[in-house]
User: Which sequence fits this backbone?
């Protein structure tokens, strides 16, 4: 470094801040004296400014010719500038950098090892680490830190997926528990379409199927749930005579309803109060109970009115038979005739048969199990006479059987019996049994206009 420049820098040291002097000294060996303007633009010029040199000071050595000898150079104490004067015109002008957001501190209060603040527009100062520098020697600006409220949070997707999996597992477990708890109940109780129940329910269905197959007319349409319909077909009931009940079906499409627990649950109280008020027979108990009901085609009220009128007509006809000398009967049979408990078809048939051959009415059989009061008796056991009824081992004469069979088989439609057979009762008496099917037609004995 030229001697004149060293003296000038020494003279201006008192007026330059400590930080600026250190930076100027660090850049002196590598920066030519003629590049003072570039040094000021780079921010390395001292903050104190002046436009002219102090009076009586020689021009800077790097702006003129070098002195001939060292004697011409004044000592540092002799050339020191006054405190109120600025440094020599090493820098002709200085433009300070744009103000920083943070509060500026003086060179003396700034820590010696602190780095310069990051350029304006970044939210934090640069770390003092060994980052690469640009061509001017300044550190490469670091990306600004996001505000604390806007920092990206860790994604909660794994936790949401785990929650969904746990919810699915819980639903599956709950469904299995409900299925196990309800496994002992027949789903047919709710919809009539479930699997058949086992145990006592199956036994009751077999009894009902046997009764329907033997007692119900083959021309009658029988309404039933799918399970009961299968049992009926197994007993020989034609599928064409069955009407399967479903969600959108009406029992009024049939003449007989086999009311299982599923059918009762489907129609509720309307089954007895609207669709089928009369119970022809009933089997089982509780949830296994099955009722065989007669359908009220014109409504429950009309059915009850017709049943009452028919009962009155049967009382009149039964009383007339009791006054006939060609008909004999025991006390019980006479009571049943007088009370109108005998089916109208039987009353008409007995009257016609007695006109051809005298007879003894042994009994009218027994009511069907669980039948409602007022349901007519549809069976009669007949003998040739009262004396033959009490003779052990006596058989009905062949000619009598042939005569009766010829007459009964000549009947058509409603008045043709379902079964006619010669048999012996438990007490040994020989009888001719006549039986009609259910349901009993109403109004046969009503007076014709």
Assistant:
């Amino acid at each position: 470094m030229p001697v004149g420049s060293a003296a000038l820098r020494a003279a201006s040291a008192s007026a330059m801040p400590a930080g600026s002097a250190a930076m100027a000294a660090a850049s002196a060996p590598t920066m030519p004296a003629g590049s003072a303007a570039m040094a000021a633009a780079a921010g390395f010029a001292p903050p104190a400014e002046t436009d002219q040199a102090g009076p009586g000071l020689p021009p800077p050595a790097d702006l003129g010719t070098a002195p001939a000898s060292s004697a011409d150079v004044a000592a540092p104490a002799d050339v020191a500038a006054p405190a109120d004067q600025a440094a020599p015109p090493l820098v002709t002008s200085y433009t300070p950098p744009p103000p920083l957001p943070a509060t500026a501190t003086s060179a003396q209060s700034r820590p010696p090892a602190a780095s310069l603040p990051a350029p304006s527009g970044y939210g934090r100062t640069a770390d003092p680490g060994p980052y690469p520098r640009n061509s001017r020697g300044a550190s490469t600006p670091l990306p600004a830190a996001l505000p604390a409220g806007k920092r990206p949070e860790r994604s909660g997707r794994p936790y949401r997926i785990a929650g969904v999996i746990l919810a699915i597992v819980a639903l599956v477990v709950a469904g299995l528990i409900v299925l196990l708890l309800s496994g002992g109940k027949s789903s047919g109780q709710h919809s009539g379409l479930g699997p058949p129940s086992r145990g006592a329910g199956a036994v009751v269905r077999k009894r009902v199927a046997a009764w329907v197959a033997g007692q119900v007319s083959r021309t009658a349409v029988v309404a039933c749930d799918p399970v009961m319909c299968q049992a009926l077909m197994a007993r020989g009931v034609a599928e064409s005579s069955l009407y399967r009940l479903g969600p959108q079906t009406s029992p009024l499409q049939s003449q007989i309803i086999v009311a299982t627990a599923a059918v009762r649950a489907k129609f509720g109280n309307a089954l007895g109060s609207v669709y089928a008020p009369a119970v022809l027979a009933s089997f089982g108990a509780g949830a296994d109970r099955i009722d065989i009901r007669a359908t009220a085609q014109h409504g429950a009220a009309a059915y009850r009115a017709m049943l009452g009128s028919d009962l009155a007509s049967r009382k009149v006809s039964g009383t007339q038979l009791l006054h006939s000398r060609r008909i004999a009967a025991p006390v019980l049979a006479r009571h049943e005739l007088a009370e109108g408990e005998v089916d109208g078809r039987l009353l008409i048939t007995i009257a016609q048969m007695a006109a051809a051959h005298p007879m003894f009415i042994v009994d009218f059989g027994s009511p069907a199990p669980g039948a409602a009061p007022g349901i007519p008796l549809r069976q009669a056991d007949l003998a040739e006479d009262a004396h033959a009824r009490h003779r052990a081992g006596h058989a009905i004469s062949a000619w009598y059987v042939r005569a009766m069979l010829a007459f009964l088989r000549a009947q058509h439609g409603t008045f043709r019996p379902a079964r006619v057979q010669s048999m012996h009762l438990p007490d040994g008496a020989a009888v001719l049994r006549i039986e009609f099917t259910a349901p009993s037609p109403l109004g046969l004995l009503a007076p014709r206009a």
In short: The first strand starts at residue 222 and ends at 224.
